[in-house]
Every structure is written in structure tokens, then in C-alpha cells.
Amino acid sequence: MADSGAIEPARSFDRAVAEYERARPGYPAAVLDVLPLGAGAEVLDLGAGTGKLTRVLVERYRRVIAVEPLDGMRAILDEVVSTAESVAGTAEAIPLPDASVDGVFAAQAFHWFANDEAVAEIARVLRPGGVLALVWNESADPSPLPGSYRAYLDALHPPSLDAVLAGVAWSELIGRGPFGVLSEATVGHEQAQDRAGVLAFAQSVSWIAHRPDDERAAIMRDLEALLPAGPFVFPMIAQVNWTVRS
Asked: Furthest-apart CA pair in the chain: how many Å?
């Protein structure tokens, strides 16, 4: 019988791995064009999830290592990105030798391990002159979702999570490590979804996935009632922040 209680948000993704893989947007290859990394680079995808960015990295770089702590996520990654080397591990204890990679990527993941221990570990495994790249997907306007659906999701979103994200000073944190100036670029793209995909995305977000089973089921019934047939096309912005290890 499934556990009906709430779980830690950072580990809740293992409850919704299929929904995560189906519904989370991928990344345009152009986000890599701005980075000072050649095709011969060896890179690490840290907190790789189901490999949304990993599958882009393997098309560009010679060697890609994907580190992901959750078994369910890593199982899908192994299936869909078999050319990457996947390893169980965390950002605070990266299972790689010192100075072993030319680049470290964190896609939609850095806020889960934005701490000095993780930054020190990233610096440890990066070679001098290596690149740390933080990649994010964000929705752009106009949203194709009805206002009532968006308002309901917003009401579910915990203010405590906004406070955590707003309180993370990325440049200050990374600046405490052996890194240079933090640069930024954005790339526009889009994601097409059917109705089931939109609902799967909602199931995959940590602030719904971590709730007890009965509460999650009630939330999804409410969302289903608010969502029309679709399809939906979401304008997206992929943002990449990067810095070079000294």
C-alpha cells in the first residue's frame, strides 16, 4: 500500500516521475551556444532528474555524467539517455574525483542545493577554467491557461517556497567560491501540451507531489474541473547563468 502521508518536498519527485518526464519542458540546444565549452568537454549534469538537460548535453559534449539522488528519476534517465553515465549522488557529496570535469550543469535544480557545501563540491570536481552553468525554464506571457486554473495553482503555492527562492543570493553564494563573474543569457522556445500533459505537470511540482495521497487527489480533481480541452502552447524562456572556475 502506498504511503498516504506527506513527504519531504525535495524527495517528492519520486512520487511523480512519469508525470515529470511527460510534462516538464526540455531545453533548446542554443542555451549551450553561449558557454565557453568545446565539443571535447567532459561535463556533469548535477541533479539531473529524468535527463531533460542531459539529452541535450550528450548531443554536444564528448562525455556526460549525470548525478541524481532519486532512484525513480535515475531509472528513467538511464532509459532515455543511455549514452550518459548516470550515478547516484548528491550535490553535497559528488561521487567524482577532484578536477575531473570541464563543466557542471544544474538544470531547474540549483535551489535544492544552494549552499556552501554544494558550491565547494562543484569547485572541487571542476578543472581550473571549467564552467558552472545554472539553467532554468520559465513560462512567458501570455499563458494559454485560463485565469481560474492559474489562480488556483497560485493559491496552492506555499509562500515559504517563494521566500526561500527570493532569499537565495546566487551571485553572493557562488562568489564565495573560486569563481569569476556570473554571466547571463536567455533563449526563447515553446512547449506544446495536451490537457493530460498540463495536469501531469501540476502533479509533478513539489508543492503538490509532497502532499498526502487524499489531498493530492482532491487537488487534481479541482484542477481537472478548471481546465478546458486544450491543446495548449506555452511560450518559454530558458535562462542560463554561468561562471568560470579560477
From this structure: 53
